[in-house]
Specification:
Length: 454
C-alpha cells in the first residue's frame, strides 16, 4: 500500500476505532462483571482507573512525543530517525513503568486513603491497586509499543492484538469472579490478576510486531541506541503533552475525590456514566488519533495546505459521529444503566446526567480533533497553556463550588466540565484557523495558500 493510501483518515481510523471500541467493551464487561461483586467494588475500579491514568502520564510523555516524531520523520523520508526514536521511547517508558510499579505495589492503601476512598472500601482498593498498579510496567510497554507501531501507519496490528487481549481478559474475568472452568473464585482480586495476564500476553505480541515495524529489523543490539538530539526533539513535543495530560488527568482525579465526598452512590453512578460515555466518543476519539497521525505525516512531508484542510474534515466527521452516539445514549441510557445496577438511586443519578452529556460531547470532540491537529504539527505548548489555564482556573474550582458548596452534586460538576471543554475547544479551533503553526516553513506556495485560507 502506498504512503498516500496508508495515511488516509479512513484507513488509519477504522482499526483504531475497533481497538478503542474493544477497550470500551473491555471496560463495560469489567464494570458489568464487577457490579456482580458489589457497587463498592465498582467504585474502587472507577477511582483506581483515574489513578492509573494519572501515573501513566510519566511514560506517555515520552511515548506520545515519540509517536508524533515517528510520523513526521517517516513523512520526511527519514526512516532510520523514526526507528531510533521508537526504540528510545520503548526503553525509557519501560524503565519509568517499572519504578511506578514498585511505588503502587508498596503504597497502595496510603494512595487510596489520599484519594478519599471511603474507609469501608479501603481493603478492596488496597488489593486492586497493588495488583494492577504493580503491573504498571506492562502498561508502559504496551503504550510505547502500540504508539510507535500505530504511527508508522500500521493501525491494524494493535487492533488485532487488542481483540485477543479483550477476549482473554473477559474469559478470565468470568472464570475468577464466578469460579468457572475450575478457577478459584477470587472476586476483585481475580479481576486484577486477569488484567495482568491479558496485558502480559499483549505486550509479548506487540514486542514481536514492533521489531518488524521498520525497514530494518530491530535487534537486541539496537535496544542500546540513544540519540541525544532526537531525544531532545522528542521531549520538545512530548513534555507539553505530558503537562497537559497530567493537568487533565489529575483534575479528573480531583473531581473523582469531590464525587467521593458526595457519597459511594454518586461515585458508582459516575463510574457507570464513564463507561456509557465511552460509547459516545470512542469513534470520535479514533478519528482524532488518526487525524494526528495523518497531519504529522503530511506536515513532515511539507504538505501543509493538505494538513490544514484535513483537520476540518476530521473535526466535522467526528462531530457527526459523536452527536449521533450521544443521542442514542440519551434515548436508551436509562435502560442501559439498569444493566449495571438495580439500585434505583444510582440509576436516577445517571439518568439525570444523560441530557448534560448531549452538551458535553460536541465540545469534547472539537477539543480532541483540533488538539490532535495542533499536536500533529508539534504545536503542543499552546495546548498545554490553554489546558492548564482552563482546567485549574475553571473546571476544578467551579466543580467544587457548584457541586459541593452550592450542593448541586453531580450536575454542578458536569456543568463545570462542559464549560471547560467548550472554552478549550474554542481556543484550539481559533489557533488552527490562524495558521500560525504552519508558517515557520518559509513563504512556499503551500504556506501562502494556508495563510490565505486562515
Amino acid at each position: 500500500m502506498s504512503d498516500d493510501k496508508k495515511f488516509t483518515l479512513w484507513v488509519l481510523a477504522w482499526p483504531i476505532f475497533i481497538e478503542m471500541f474493544l477497550q470500551f467493551l473491555l471496560g463495560t464487561a469489567d464494570t458489568l462483571m464487577v457490579s456482580r461483586i458489589s457497587d463498592g467494588a465498582v467504585a474502587v475500579v472507577g477511582i483506581s482507573t483515574q489513578l492509573f491514568a494519572a501515573v501513566t502520564i510519566l511514560f506517555m510523555t515520552v511515548a506520545n512525543g515519540a509517536g508524533v516524531l515517528i510520523a513526521q520523520k517517516l513523512g520526511a523520508r527519514r526512516p532510520e530517525d523514526a526507528r531510533t526514536v521508537a526504540i528510545m521511547s520503548v526503553n525509557i517508558s519501560v524503565v519509568i513503568g517499572a519504578v511506578l510499579s514498585l511505588a503502587l505495589y508498596l503504597f497502595a492503601r496510603d494512595i487510596a486513603a489520599l484519594l478519599q476512598v471511603p474507609a469501608a472500601l479501603l481493603p478492596l482498593a488496597d488489593t486492586y491497586i497493588s495488583i494492577v498498579g504493580g503491573g504498571m510496567t506492562l502498561t508502559a510497554a504496551m503504550a510505547a509499543l502500540s504508539t510507535a507501531i500505530r504511527n508508522t501507519g500500521n493501525t491494524r496490528g494493535p487492533m488485532y492484538i487488542a481483540i485477543g487481549m479483550n477476549v482473554i481478559h473477559v474469559v478470565l474475568n468470568y472464570a475468577f469472579i464466578y469460579g468457572a472452568f475450575g478457577f478459584p473464585q477470587w472476586g476483585l482480586s481475580g479481576v486484577a490478576v486477569s488484567t495482568l495476564v491479558s496485558r502480559l500476553l499483549a505486550t509479548i505480541v506487540l514486542a514481536f510486531l514492533f521489531v518488524h515495524s521498520f525497514e530494518r529489523r530491530i535487534g537486541w543490539k539496537d535496544l542500546l541506541q540513544f540519540d541525544r538530539p532526537l531525544f531532545r526533539e522528542t521531549m520538545q513535543i512530548g513534555w507539553p503533552m505530558g503537562v497537559h495530560s497530567a493537568s487533565w488527568v489529575f483534575s479528573q482525579l480531583i473531581l473523582f475525590s469531590f464525587i467521593a465526598m458526595l457519597g459511594a452512590k454518586e461515585l458508582a453512578a459516575r463510574t457507570y456514566m464513564n463507561t456509557m460515555e465511552s460509547f459516545c466518543f470512542t469513534l470520535g476519539y479514533s478519528v482524532a488519533m488518526a487525524l494526528q497521525i495523518q497531519i504529522a505525516h503530511l506536515f513532515g512531508a511539507g504538505r501543509k495546505q493538505e494538513a490544514y484542510r484535513a483537520a476540518y474534515r476530521g473535526m466535522w466527521t467526528g462531530l457527526a459521529v459523536v452527536m449521533t452516539n450521544a443521542l442514542l445514549l440519551y434515548v436508551f441510557g436509562s435502560k442501559a444503566l439498569s444493566l449495571f445496577t438495580v439500585d434505583t438511586e444510582i440509576v436516577a443519578l445517571g439518568v439525570a446526567l444523560l441530557g448534560l452529556n448531549l452538551l458535553l460531547q460536541p465540545g469534547k470532540m472539537i477539543n480532541m480533533a483540533m488538539g490532535s491537529a495542533l499536536t500533529g504539527v508539534g504545536d503542543t505548548r499552546f495546548i498545554m497553556i490553554t489546558g492548564v489555564f482552563s482546567l485549574w482556573l475553571l473546571a476544578t474550582p467551579f466543580s467544587y463550588f457548584l457541586g459541593i458548596r452550592l450542593e448541586w452534586g453531580l450536575a454542578g460538576i458536569y456543568a463545570s466540565m462542559i464549560a471547560d471543554e467548550y472554552l478549550r475547544g474554542f481556543l484550539v479551533l481559533r489557533r488552527w484557523k490562524s495558521g500560525k503553526m504552519l508558517r515557520p516553513a518559509t513563504a512556499s506556495p503551500g504556506h501562502q495558500a494556508v495563510s490565505a485560507q486562515s
